[in-house]
Specification:
Blueprint lengths: L1 H33 L14 H24 L6 E2 L3 H5 L8 H8 L4 E5 L6 E5 L1 H16 L1 H13 L5 E3 H6 L10 H7 L5 E5 L6 E5 L10 H13 L3 H4 L15 H11 L18 H20 L5 E3 H4 L12 H6 L5 E4 L9 E4 L3 E2 L2 E2 L4 H14 L2 H38 L21 H4 L1
Antiparallel strand pairs: 1-3, 2-3, 4-6, 5-6, 7-9, 8-9, 10-11
Helix pairs in contact: 2-15, 5-15
Length: 446
């Protein structure tokens, strides 16, 4: 009987044990899948106030640039205040908003009364003109660097060509002048070629010849510096990126392991032609994903301010093999890039290169960046300070006028006294000290 009960128990408990084991394996499989060493695809964006504050100032600066460009397009570079609202609607200002806007920035816009017409006009201040001249000079001085940036940009393209319109839209980010089609492309026929496509009738820029000496990414220089200064293991730094997660970003144990494995993953250079590789394998897809990170990193490194809008990166997506969902892809690597939605009411996404900034300031500024930040400084100056400066100027002017008036009066009195004392003895003495009975000077009385 005991043997029968044991055999019966074994017979009925065996499937139950198998079921429990299957559920446990499924649970462990799901748990292991959530703790995978691959970086999660969807990440919640963590704000970094340093970059967001930078974009708040950029938003004001962008509106100021639109407005003073409108003033500069007018006759004599002045605009009547009566026509202010009507003309400002062209650049998106609401009714009665333009007048309040120019009063917020007295260091850039000046309202004055016309001496003849007796009506109010608006013009740019002397400080604003100085900033514009400084930016213009810096833009012209770095045209050789702009030629190098454009060459590297074309070398990252699959076909070695880019649409002229896409480059024109992003010309300010890459430090190209407004007339770059003539001052950069046509003036350097040994580097660039401009042609019309037969299929689409669009203009394209094509590189004449690829230079192997220029196929050097900015991250490679950073790796070499990290290796020499910090003595990091060569195997760890060979394919790695500088990762600085934003404050408040949660980094778990398995996420840290995934990032460590991703850092050691080899990839193809953005300047390397990958058309001959078989990209169907899982390993090749992983390499292409990391190559896309390196491409966006290099794209940001070529900009003047190490930032560019997400919408302008999307213009180069097809020619540089970038993913379709760029925002999700960049959020997957928040330690390398930062996306700010400040500016233009959240409709604009600006991508920053995190390693190039510290506390909202560029670590290695250039002359063009410095000139553009001058305008931001004028935007941030308080209107109260402008009123104080105006009062100081008025006070100095009144003081100078009083001083000049006093000098003129003293000069006039000295001249009058000198004329009255000509030929008299004791010149310069008081007339009360002279003898009234004396006949000296009778020649003048006759």
């Amino acid at each position: 009987m005991l043997v029968f009960i044991v055999a019966l128990s074994t017979k009925f408990l065996k499937p139950t044990t198998t079921m429990i084991t299957t559920k446990a394996m499924a649970f462990l499989h799901r748990r292991g899948k959530s703790q995978s060493t691959s970086i999660p695809k969807k990440q919640q964006r963590v704000r970094d106030h340093g970059f967001d504050n930078y974009m708040e100032v950029e938003k004001k600066t962008r509106k100021v640039i639109k407005f003073y460009s409108l003033i500069l397009s007018q006759h004599n570079q002045t605009l009547p205040v009566s026509r202010l609202d009507t003309i400002a609607r062209r650049i998106g200002f609401k009714q009665y908003e333009a007048g309040a806007f120019i009063l917020k920035f007295p260091h850039i816009f000046q309202v004055y009364e016309h001496p003849v017409q007796r009506i109010l006009y608006c013009r740019l201040t002397r400080k604003a003109f100085q900033q514009m001249d400084q930016e213009h000079d810096a833009l012209l001085a770095q045209i050789p660097d702009a030629v190098t940036r454009l060459r590297k940009l074309l070398m990252m393209s699959n076909t070695g060509r880019l649409r002229l319109e896409h480059v024109r839209i992003a010309r300010a980010e890459f430090g190209l002048p407004d007339d770059f089609e003539f001052s950069v492309i046509l003036k350097h026929p040994n580097f660039f070629r401009l042609f019309d496509a037969e299929e689409t009738r669009n203009k394209y820029i094509e590189i004449v010849e690829r230079d192997a000496n220029m196929a050097f990414c900015a991250i490679e220089g950073v790796r070499e510096r990290e290796y020499r200064e910090k003595g990091i293991d060569a195997e760890d730094v060979r394919f790695s990126f500088i990762v600085n997660f934003p404050p408040g970003f949660k980094i778990g144990k398995y996420y840290r392991i995934a990032v460590w494995k991703w850092q050691r993953l080899p990839y193809w250079s953005p300047y390397e032609d990958v058309s001959g590789y078989d990209l169907r394998s899982l390993e090749a897809q992983k390499r292409m994903e990391k190559r896309a990170v390196a491409t966006i990193h290099e794209l940001l490194s070529l900009t003047v301010e190490k930032k560019i809008t997400l919408e302008r990166i999307a213009h180069f997506r097809m020619s540089m093999n970038l993913p379709k969902k760029l925002k999700e892809f960049l959020l997957q690597h928040q330690g390398i890039f930062y996306i700010s939605t400040r500016g233009n009411q959240g409709k604009l996404h600006t991508v920053f290169l995190r390693e190039a900034y510290r506390k909202g300031e560029l670590l290695e500024p250039n002359s063009l960046y410095t000139a553009r930040r001058k305008l931001a400084e004028l935007v941030l100056l308080s209107p109260r300070k402008a009123n104080v400066d105006r009062e100081l100027v008025s006070y100095r002017r009144d003081t100078e006028d009083d001083e000049m008036g006093r000098v003129r009066r003293e000069s006039a009195e000295d001249d009058f006294v000198g004329i009255g004392n000509v030929g008299r003895p004791g010149e310069g003495e008081d007339e009360s000290n002279l003898d009234p009975d004396s006949d000296v000077g009778s020649d003048y009385t006759d």
